[in-house]
Amino acid sequence: MIVVLNPQATEEQIQHIVEKVSKLGLRANISRGTERTVIGLIGPEDVLRVTPLEVFPGVEQVIPVLAPYKLVSREFKKENSIVKINNKIKIGGPKIIMMAGPCAVESRDGLYNIAVEVKKAGATILRGGAFKPRTSPYEFQGLGEEGLKYLKEVGEKLDLAVATEVVDPRHVELVSKYADIFQIGARNMQNFSLLNEVGQTKKPVLLKRGISATIKEWLMSAEYILSKGNFDVILCERGIRTFETATRNTLDINAIPLVKQLSHLPVVVDPSHGTGRWGLVSGVSKAAVAAGCDGLIIEVHDNPEEALSDGTQSLIPENFANLMNDLEKVAQAVGRTMR
Ligand code: PEP
Ligand code: MN
Prior knowledge:
Elements: E1 2-5, H1 11-23, E2 27-32, E3 37-42, E4 59-63, E5 83-85, E6 89-91, E7 97-101, H2 108-121, E8 125-127, H3 145-158, E9 161-165, H4 172-178, E10 181-184, H5 192-199, E11 205-208, H6 215-227, E12 233-237, H7 255-262, E13 267-269, H8 271-275, H9 278-291, E14 295-299, H10 317-333
Parallel strand pairs: 7-8, 7-14, 8-9, 9-10, 10-11, 11-12, 12-13, 13-14
Antiparallel strand pairs: 1-3, 1-4, 2-3, 5-6
Helix pairs in contact: 2-3, 2-10, 5-6, 9-10
This protein binds phosphoenolpyruvate and manganese (II) ion (MN).
Manganese (II) ion (MN) binds at residues 103, 273, 299, 309-310.
């Protein structure tokens, strides 16, 4: 249930409504927009049959939310949410935000060299996994805390924000010491204890779509995080598993405009995992920007042949820089900017 207040509603009237619904056992989430404030109510809404909120001063309209996700829905918040990273980078505004870096952090110097290149090309967020969720237990699992230290050090040195995956609820505090954005990987999209844990922090979360997740399931996972109080969620379309085996995954381009309709949260696209092939990354990135994404997360490696994970889908720095230039024109065509 969403309570839309009239533009003249006073703070006193808002608090009165919040107190009243809290007494009825409902939780109130206030969203203050530029034009008006809305209150999202979570809980057994039946109690409102005997206490219709329409009669409360300051209330303009009470709208039932039909979708199972409430706080992430467009009905709850009309304007696009802008997620701020370190009070500097804004995801969800006119600028397309570029996140780039290796799949996994392999060494301090290796990470530094790649970071210099992606920064030079225009990326503002450095990506890199320290805890890697690999399909095989025999493959490189990441450097763990050592990798997190390199990420923080390199990020600070080059003034890049850092995004890295957290795979275990017990690691949330540790990762939080080093990273600016928690990445929740596709394999963990429905790890509800992990979602609840990051939901209790104040750090932005990049929530990847699960390998076989429907859009509804993906948005419900985001709802877990928002319902715990963390509204700084960035959705990431990274391809889903289909019958097609020519590419690693099938990037669901439909998801971009659809999720922008259904939700106020920013949407970032990962063409590296979406395709699994570096030669397709540029084309799919352009399509994603044209379709309305708010950012891209791209794997870049200076020596993909020797990469410890995902070399086949990693761009070399030169190709990443070329992609940035190509995207400039697409962004302009759809009213966005790259820099
Ligand atoms: C990654 O970003 O390296 C990764 C493991 O992504 P995903 O969870 O989308 O597979
Ligand atoms: Mn990867």
